[in-house]
Amino acid sequence: MEEEINTAAELLPDKKPLYENITGRGNIWIRTIISLALYIAAYYIFFHRDLQWILILTGVILLHEAGHFAAMKIFGYRDVHMLFVPFLGAYVSGSPKKISQKQRVITLLAGPLPGIIIGVVYLFAFMSASGIFYYKLSLIFILLNVFNLLPVTPLDGGQLLENLFARAGRAVQPFLLIASAICLFYMAVVLHNYLILLFVWLIILRFRGLQRLSVIRKDLDAVGIAYDTSYEALSDAGYMAIRKALIRNIPALREYDPEKISGDEDMIISYVNKVLTGSVNMDLGNSGRIIVLSLWIVFIFAPVILFIYASPHYHL
Q1: How many domains does the chain fold into?
Q2: Using CA atoms, how far apart are residues 93 and 77, in angstroms rounded to an integer?
Q3: How confident is the model at residue 200 (pLDDT cuts 50, 70, 90)?
Q4: pLDDT band for position 222 (50/70/90)?
């Protein structure tokens, strides 16, 4: 009898860790502050030590990311955190409990749209008062945020298009990444701005990550494990199956025992959430897509047209 009980216990999957028990989340704000300090210091050292404009640039980026941050918080994203990356900008990440097209669109647009509006206000202030300082502020606000709306993954515009056409997104995304890398590489060569190559490298890393996720999901499809769910709805058996597939395919996870949950599963859980696609609520119809696309086009081209109109007023 005792032997039968032990055998039955071995057949039961380990319990997946509760999301609330994940360690290491308390220092999110410390990481944000440290990354912000490093970001400012890097620009201060390498770019003529013009602290005023470094702080203005940082403020514009902070406002942009604060829009994403606020939207994620409102829509109940977990582990929302902001990190600054020297010479590249910043990003906000988090995990949604439920995925909605409308919420995702709002989250993506909450970053660039407020900045563009502020930039246009400063541009009108320049046109009425002819203050060069207003012109430079509008240039920073508009340039940075319009750039983020370009249809290039992983910028906000590229992610927006992927979300609008989510049904075909998994097949289209690798091609968007390749096209984005080629375009940015061309820009780096033409403009002789080789810092752009850092974006190309990030895109290459993301492309490699997508390829690995594709292999892992094919493995899961072969054994009938569903990954179109949230972490909370994922079964213990599903967690262990995804965990084993991750350990097989991700070199950084090879130190984990595939048969037994460890005392520190934070990295595993992070990768599990990348595998899970969630149950997407396709709540944006054709008319909604047209409205979002129209809004996207207006906020890209309208500021450019305004700048063309305002440029004769600008004299160095």
Answers
A1: 1
A2: 9
A3: confident
A4: confident
pLDDT (mean) for 275-297: 82
- DSSP classification of residue 252: G
Which residues on adjacent β-strands are paired with residue 78?
Answer: 95
314 assigned to some structural domain: yes
Nearest Cα neighbor of 61 from 92, 98, 34 is 92
For residue 99, being part of any structural domain is answered with: no
Whether residue 203 is contained in a domain is answered as no
Strands (E), the chain: 78-85, 89-95, 99-100, 280-281
Question: Which of helix, strand or coil describes residue 288?
Answer: helix
Could you give the 3-state DSSP secondary structure of residue 80?
A: strand
What pTM did the predictor assign? 0.72
266-275 and 236-249 are packed helices; what angle lies between their axes, rounded to 10 degrees? 100
Residues 260-285 pLDDT 10s: 887 777 788 888 888 887 666 777 78
Residue 142 belongs to some domain of the structure: yes
What's the domain range around 295? 111-149+285-316
